[in-house]
């Protein structure tokens, strides 16, 4: 919305600042953080009033978690409200990529919200049908990927780029719709599995969002893309503003989610944030790099897959408990140790992922 103030720069030269993505990204970070800081306590109060007993705690999980009973969930509403309001304020709303990413983020957030609602009202860990949930996720992701292929350059928009390789592209054709949808759905559910300890998911999400905001900005700038010899994707630079809004909203949420958490993110936030990261990666043509920068999320998801497969095939468990952050708790690590060490892993993986921009 504020972007259009730049049209008045002929009369007020200072308004030309609103043309710059970097300026609006900085504004988005500060605005989103302030929004969540100001409205967070009210949202927490309302959720606590509505939910009563809060999010159900697993009886078979670490015993230290039982003390968290009564903590409200659906904290993702704080992040989503800050993200959406800030994006509408600072982003160029004429850019189709902004609306595509918001569509995925809100759509996945709605799925998570309904799942959280069922868990809270029924006081059970079982939400609604997993097959139905995945079907809706794939429908949303598929529609978003189709829109991305229509907005992008024909041929290039359906191609897969590889890190460390300068000019190689693999055109997947119509198969790219399925591939892109798997990336988005996989990212959403991987972040969802990571959200199990106070502050564990939100910081890696912020790290990944900051990294992909940087990548989107460079990929959407012809000069920088040519210098780094990465593929130029016209229009994706505006997604840096969306990623900035995620970073700011995440900072605000962390204030309330830091141990001991006043509120949990819930599926409302984790599904939405994962879907958002996946959509940005597909739009910016850095899907494989997402697996590197979001390697912590991948590890959490793989640990669950391995645990389930091993138990069904052999009757034995590979980990003491899955996802893997609970395994380390069972080994004797305290919750803060697990969280901070996983944050360190997320930072290292982000640096490795960003290095792929130059190592070609």
TrEMBL record:
Binding, Mg(2+): 192, 267
Keywords: Cell cycle, Cell division, Cell membrane, Cell shape, Cell wall biogenesis/degradation, Magnesium, Membrane, Metal-binding, Peptidoglycan synthesis, Transferase, Transmembrane, Transmembrane helix
Function statement: Catalyzes the initial step of the lipid cycle reactions in the biosynthesis of the cell wall peptidoglycan: transfers peptidoglycan precursor phospho-MurNAc-pentapeptide from UDP-MurNAc-pentapeptide onto the lipid carrier undecaprenyl phosphate, yielding undecaprenyl-pyrophosphoryl-MurNAc-pentapeptide, known as lipid I.
Listed transmembrane segments: 20-44, 73-91, 97-114, 134-152, 172-193, 200-219, 239-256, 288-311, 338-357
Biological processes annotated in GO: cell division; cell wall organization; peptidoglycan biosynthetic process; regulation of cell shape
Name of this protein: Phospho-N-acetylmuramoyl-pentapeptide-transferase
Entry's localization field: Cell membrane; Membrane
Cofactor(s) of this protein: Mg(2+)
Alphabetical list of PROSITE patterns matching this protein: MRAY_1, MRAY_2
Pfam families: Glycos_transf_4 (PF00953), MraY_sig1 (PF10555)
Membrane topology annotation: Multi-pass membrane protein
Pathway: Cell wall biogenesis; peptidoglycan biosynthesis
UniProt EC number: 2.7.8.13
GO terms under cellular component: plasma membrane
Catalytic reactions on record: UDP-N-acetyl-alpha-D-muramoyl-L-alanyl-gamma-D-glutamyl-meso-2,6-diaminopimeloyl-D-alanyl-D-alanine + di-trans,octa-cis-undecaprenyl phosphate = di-trans,octa-cis-undecaprenyl diphospho-N-acetyl-alpha-D-muramoyl-L-alanyl-D-glutamyl-meso-2,6-diaminopimeloyl-D-alanyl-D-alanine + UMP
Family affiliation: Belongs to the glycosyltransferase 4 family. MraY subfamily.
Gene Ontology MF terms: metal ion binding; phospho-N-acetylmuramoyl-pentapeptide-transferase activity
Chain's gene name: mraY
């Amino acid at each position: 919305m504020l972007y259009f103030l730049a049209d008045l720069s002929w009369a007020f030269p200072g308004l030309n600042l609103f043309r710059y993505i970097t300026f609006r990204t900085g504004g988005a970070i500060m605005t989103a953080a302030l929004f969540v800081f100001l409205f967070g306590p009210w949202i927490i109060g309302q959720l606590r009033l509505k939910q009563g007993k809060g999010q159900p705690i697993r009886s078979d999980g670490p015993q230290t978690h039982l003390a968290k009973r009564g903590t409200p969930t659906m904290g993702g509403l704080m992040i989503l409200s800050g993200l959406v309001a800030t994006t509408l304020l600072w982003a160029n709303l004429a850019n189709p990529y902004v609306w595509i990413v918001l569509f995925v983020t809100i759509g996945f957030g709605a799925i998570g919200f309904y799942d959280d609602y069922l868990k809270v009202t029924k006081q059970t860990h079982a939400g609604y049908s997993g097959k139905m949930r995945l079907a809706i996720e794939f429908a949303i992701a598929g529609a978003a990927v189709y829109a991305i292929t229509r907005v992008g350059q024909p041929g290039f928009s359906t191609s897969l780029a590889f890190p460390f390789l300068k000019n190689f592209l693999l055109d997947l054709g119509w198969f790219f719709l399925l591939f892109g949808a798997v990336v988005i759905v996989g990212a959403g559910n991987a972040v969802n599995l990571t959200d199990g300890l106070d502050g564990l998911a939100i910081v890696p999400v912020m790290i990944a969002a900051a990294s992909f905001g940087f990548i989107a900005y460079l990929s959407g700038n012809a000069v920088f893309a040519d210098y780094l010899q990465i593929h130029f994707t016209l229009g994706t630079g505006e997604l840096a503003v969306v990623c900035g809004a995620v970073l700011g909203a995440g900072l605000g949420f962390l204030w309330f989610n830091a141990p001991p958490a006043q509120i949990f993110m819930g599926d409302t936030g984790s599904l939405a944030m994962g879907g958002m990261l996946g959509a940005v990666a597909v739009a910016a043509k850095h899907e494989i790099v997402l697996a590197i920068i979001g390697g912590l999320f991948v590890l959490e998801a793989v640990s669950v897959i391995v645990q389930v497969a091993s138990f069904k095939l052999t009757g034995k468990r590979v980990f003491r408990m899955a996802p893997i952050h609970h395994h380390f708790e069972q080994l004797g690590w305290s919750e803060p140790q697990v969280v901070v060490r996983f944050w360190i892993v997320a930072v290292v993986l982000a640096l490795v992922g960003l290095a792929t921009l130059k190592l070609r």
